[in-house]
Structures are given as C-alpha cells and as structure tokens.
C-alpha cells in the first residue's frame, strides 16, 4: 500500500521490517511493553502477528517482549514488512503510536531504500545474477534428471554446521541404511557444484524436501547458512502448523537455545531417558505424508 499513515508516498508494504532501526524499536517497546487498561499492548500485536496463546505466554518472561515478537516475526513470516506492522497497529487501535513514530519510521525506510539503490549492481543485459533461471534448477543433485522431467525428491533436508558432520553420518546410517529407508538431502553429499548456493537451498527446502531437520549446536548458532535455511523453512510454515521443521539436539550446549525454535517440539538426543526412542520418533516424524 502507498501508505496513508504519513504524507510520504513510500510503499511501506515493499519494505521489510529489518529496515526499522534500534531507535524506532525501542520507542515501540516503550509504548507496547506496559500493560494498559484502556489501550492495546504488545500481546494484542503478537496475536495480530499470528502467534498462538502459549507462544504469547512464553514471551511474558522476557524483559522486552515487544523486541522479541518483532525479531521472531521478521524471522519467520514472509509478511513481516513495515506496512504490515503499521496495518496491525491500526487494527489494534494504536494509531497514537504511529502518529508519534511516523517521522522516525519514514526516515528509516528512506535510508533503507537509499542503501538498496546504492548496493544494486550495475550490469549489462548479458551479465546474469546468481539467481538461476528455471532451467538451471534441473540437474542440481547427484540423482537428478537433467531434463527436469523427474526431479530428485527427499523426505528431509538436513540443516547442519560442518563441525556436526559426524552426527550427520550417524543420521544417514540410522535413517537411510536401516529398515526406515528414508531419503535425506545432505548438501555436501547430494548437491552438485556450480550454481548459487542460496537459490539451490531454497529450491530444495521448498520444492524437493517434505521436511527439514535442524541439527542444533553451539556451532549452528554461528552459521550464516544455517540461519538462512532455518528462517526460510519457518517462513514456509508460520506457527509450525505443517510440522515441516524438526529441531534436533544431539550434544550439550553452552549457548542459549535459539528463541526462534523454542516453540517447536525438540527431538533431544542428549536426554538419557529418551535416547532409546530418539531414532524411532524422528523416523516416524519424517515418514509422515
């Protein structure tokens, strides 16, 4: 929408929520964190974003719940734009927030648009970007049909950090080389080299794999590739209603478990009380339609 909240003609629906900087987010929190009798607070905004009751209750433990819902919403929803946020604030009758912040919001959006324009590469028509054309999505895996008539399909895409490769091999032994006979997509084993890694990953997660297993570890938290894969998969199933993403923890962690995944049922290999059930539970979850 070419927004009517401000006098500007900026199309806020085309600008991702990440454009909003720290100052705007801090002021939003000052408005929405306190509980009000006569005005909607952060819980109303969280409900408008699509978070469920138990998720919202869990956010209550945080000192700044507004900050948390903004970050998790922008990481899991394809609708996380500045325009959508303004629309939801209007829906929960917090136009006062928009009126106070319209100047800073507009300024952040202008900075974002200016940066995008500066970073846009100058290319002659013959020079292609790294985003493959449809035909280039043919023949991207070892057993793929180069003609594209029968693309290779998988039960699950495995999201992992390279330091966790030993557990990936164990997963292959337990899920592929047993009576489970599942088919896993392991990037370093199954994907052919030569095409843009982000485009191939998106194609595999969205169109070739029924589910995605995320191997959580301290190293996972430092991986940009794992971060992209996880957020992309979550954007395909907001609220985890399709059970598309399955987090797996296979060793103790020193760092905090990622908040973006805390609302998904964990398959925990570190719990000695449930280790004997681990592979059966995971195989069953991956074999569902």
Q: How would you describe this protein?
A:
By secondary structure, this protein is an alpha/beta fold. 44% of the residues lie in helices and 8% in strands. It has eleven helices and five strands; from the N terminus they run ααααααβαβααβαββα. The chain has helices at 22-32, 42-49, 53-59, 65-76, 82-91, 95-119, 165-175, 187-190, 197-208, 224-236, 275-287, and strands at residues 154-159, 184-185, 209-216, 245-249, 267-268. The chain has a five-stranded parallel β-sheet with strand order 2-1-3-4-5. Helix 1 crosses helix 4 and helix 1 runs antiparallel to helix 6. Mean pLDDT is 85; it is low at 124-129.
Characteristic terms for this protein:
single chain; 289 residues; alpha/beta; five-stranded parallel β-sheet; 8% strand
Terminal Cα span: 38 Å
- The tally of helices reads 11
Q: Radius of gyration, Cα only, in angstroms?
A: 22 Å
**Major β-sheet strand ordering:** 2-1-3-4-5
Helix content: 40-55%
Q: What percentage of the residues does DSSP assign to strands (E)?
A: 5-15%
Summarize this entry quickly:
The protein is of the alpha/beta class and 289 residues long.
SSE blueprint:
Elements: H1 22-32, H2 42-49, H3 53-59, H4 65-76, H5 82-91, H6 95-119, E1 154-159, H7 165-175, E2 184-185, H8 187-190, H9 197-208, E3 209-216, H10 224-236, E4 245-249, E5 267-268, H11 275-287
Parallel strand pairs: 1-2, 1-3, 3-4, 4-5
């Amino acid at each position: 929408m070419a927004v009517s909240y401000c006098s500007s003609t900026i199309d806020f629906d085309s600008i991702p929520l990440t454009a909003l900087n720290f100052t705007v987010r801090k002021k939003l929190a000052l408005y929405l964190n306190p509980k009000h009798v006569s005005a909607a607070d952060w819980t109303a905004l969280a409900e408008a974003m699509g978070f469920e009751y138990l998720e919202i209750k869990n956010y209550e433990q945080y000192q700044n719940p507004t900050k948390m819902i903004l970050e998790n919403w922008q990481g899991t929803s394809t609708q996380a734009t500045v325009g959508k946020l303004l629309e939801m604030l209007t829906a929960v009758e917090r136009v006062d927030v928009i009126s106070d912040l319209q100047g800073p919001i507009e300024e952040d959006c202008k900075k974002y648009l200016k940066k995008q324009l500066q970073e846009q590469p100058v290319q002659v028509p013959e020079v292609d970007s790294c985003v493959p054309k449809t035909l280039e999505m043919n023949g991207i895996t070892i057993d793929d049909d180069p003609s594209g008539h029968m693309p290779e399909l998988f039960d699950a895409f495995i999201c992992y950090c390279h330091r966790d490769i030993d557990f990936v091999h164990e997963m292959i032994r337990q899920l592929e080389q047993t009576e489970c006979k599942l088919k896993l997509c392991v990037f370093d084993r199954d994907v052919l080299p030569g095409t843009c890694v982000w485009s191939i990953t998106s194609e595999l997660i969205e169109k070739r794999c029924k589910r995605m297993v995320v191997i959580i570890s301290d190293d996972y938290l430092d991986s940009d590739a794992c971060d992209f894969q996880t957020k992309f998969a979550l954007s395909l199933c907001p609220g985890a209603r399709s059970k598309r993403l399955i987090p797996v923890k296979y060793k103790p962690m020193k760092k905090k478990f990622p908040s973006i995944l805390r609302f998904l049922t964990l398959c925990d290999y570190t719990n000695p009380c449930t280790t004997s059930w681990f592979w059966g539970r995971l195989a069953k979850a991956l074999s569902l339609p």
